Each structure stands twice: as C-alpha cells, then as structure tokens.
Amino acid sequence: MNRDTEYFTQLSIESEEAYVLMNAGMCINTSVCRECAEHRDFIRSILEILSELEINASAANTYAAKLNEYSERVSKILKNIAVVLAS
Questions:
Q1: Torsion, Cα of 64, 68, 74, 80 (10° steps)
Q2: What is the pLDDT of residue 76?
Q3: What is the mean pLDDT, run by run of 10 residues, along the chain of 87 residues?
Q4: By the 8 A CB rule, do 60 and 67 touch?
Q5: Which of 21, 40, 50, 53 has the least CB density, counted as fewest CB within 10 Å?
Q6: Distance between CA 70 and CA 23 in Å, rounded?
Q7: Distance between CA atoms of residues 48 and 27, nearest Å
Q8: Burial category of 67 from C-beta neighbours within 10 Å (exposed 0-12, middle 13-18, buried 19 and up)
C-alpha cells in the first residue's frame, strides 16, 4: 500500500465524520439493526489505526487486511444507504 500521511489524515477526518453521523442517527432511531451497530463500531476501531497511519504511513502494510475490510464495509454501508433511499 503506497499512501502518504496526507491521504491517511483525510481518510481519518472523513471516517470520523461518518462515525459521528452514524452514531447520531442511531441515537435518534431506537430500532437500530445489529449490522448497523457493528459497522459503526468497526469504523470506531479503524479510527485508531488511521491515527497511527497519519503519523507513520509506512506502517500501512501492517494493517492491509484491516484496511481492505474497511473498504468492503464502506461499500456495503453505501449499498445499504442506496437501498433505503430508493424505497
């Protein structure tokens, strides 16, 4: 993975904003599905990794599997949002 610290800083900012919005939405909606809560919690765990990568981008290979999982989960979250918006 060849990314610089600026990339991880931006990804961290956007991820934190997504986490805050998901959390706020879950606080408003009392019938939150387990899958949504798991995605939110996973994003929270990724924030710690991104904070480290903001300082040391060369460590990205260490977290390659976790970052790939993050990418897959973000895609799934976006698909779920599209389904809800289309209904």
A1: -160
A2: 87
A3: 82 89 68 76 92 92 93 87 80
A4: yes
A5: 21
A6: 17
A7: 23
A8: buried
